[in-house]
């Protein structure tokens, strides 16, 4: 099975992807990963979806609304960031925007004067630190060594910090089996109670919502695409019935069933 995730080597996405394959290829954007899976170039793609401190990875959500792919598994991993540099003489800190945000409190109190630079991934920031003594990176502590010191560990603002990843597959691998399901709904409508109408079919059938997120549709201001996760499988009658109701409400838009899946926690 060929697998693609966010690179270079040493990202948290890479750690999550190792739970499904020992060999992994890399891209430097989430959209490029989703595109490569939708195209059938890869059997699986692993992308971050949401973090317990910083919330949604918006590029992933937008790519899921744009491309036709399936979600076949969820991987949850603890995120424990380290500060890595050649020494203390740096004035710039480079990392993924999510990682910089997850360490905001630490950076404000310990390095208030450093320039913060958002780069494609934590591993890219670490690579910059390895090449340039004026740069520090934030990433997993295992990226240290080879001239790079781990200056501080566990610098995230909450020790419970964790990120949820989706394992994506081409559409034909979509499965109705699993304890959780994900949908993307574009109602293309606007009236009082629309969101209530979209959620009630789940409440009426005792289906627990585990995430609801709205993203701008890009069509016009105030127009949204809704990402909905539920703790029920597509194989269940109650899920099929709820979706039939939602498809009716969204008849001027669309409903995408990304699939059902189980969850794995990896360190
Ligand atoms: O840059 C990385 O190491 C990634 O795998 C990306 C990512 C993200 O997109 O949120 C994954 C986990 C962490 O939350 C920080 C960054």
Automatic annotation (TrEMBL):
Give the GO molecular function terms. Answer: prephenate dehydratase activity
Q: Which UniProt keywords apply?
A: Amino-acid biosynthesis, Aromatic amino acid biosynthesis, Lyase, Phenylalanine biosynthesis
- Which BP terms does GO give this entry? L-phenylalanine biosynthetic process
- Identify the residues that the record assigns to the ACT domain, covering every copy: 183-260
Q: Where is the Prephenate dehydratase domain?
A: 2-170
Q: Which Pfam families match?
A: ACT, PDT
Q: Which SUPFAM superfamilies match?
A: ACT-like (SSF55021), Periplasmic binding protein-like II (SSF53850)
Q: What is one term from the GO cellular component aspect held by the record? A: cytoplasm
Q: Which NCBIfam families match?
A: PRK11898.1 (NF008865)
Q: What is this protein called?
A: Prephenate dehydratase
What organism is listed for this UniProt entry? Natronoarchaeum mannanilyticum
